[in-house]
Amino acid sequence: MTAYKKRFRAFDPDPDCPDNKCCDMPSCDQPAGYKAPKSRQQLNDYYWFCLEHIREYNKNWDYCKGMTPAQIENHLRASTVWDKPSWKLGQLGKADLLKEQYFKDSLGVFKDHPGFNNTQTSPQVPKAPKELQHSLKTLELTWPISLQDLRKRYTVLARKYHPDTNHKDKSLTEQFKNINAAYSQLRTHLMNSVEI
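RE: above sequence
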């Protein structure tokens, strides 16, 4: 068992700092003693700084830099449950959990249970919301879709119908406007309906 090194004051150097380590700030030769994460994706990979540079680094640190407001909101929601999936209250207590879409009864143990429906062979595909059906048709997509699939499809159609590539053909310009409107509506819906 290794001995636990203790700090006497909050601003004392970190006892876990490697011996004779210099500050990671370029052109600084002061001894390091304070660690800082390298990025949001590398929270366990550290820079080691002197007291002056750790203060400067912390003052400029922005964990959410580069994130959209929707991504920040999703991150906050995920953090409240330690990045584990969660369900709406009462979702798992419904009486129809014995349907085959939730689990398969390979041994036939539940075949006589009144709530078990063994006739389904595949889970039902959810239907697109009515207000999105025209947009899906415009972009030639089927529901359900992910934001990534939507972006890929939009990129393909935007290149095909963009006025700069079609020498100002009025019918293609109108189609391009419809594609933009459909993409905007679907993107907004997907961004606002993400549940964690």
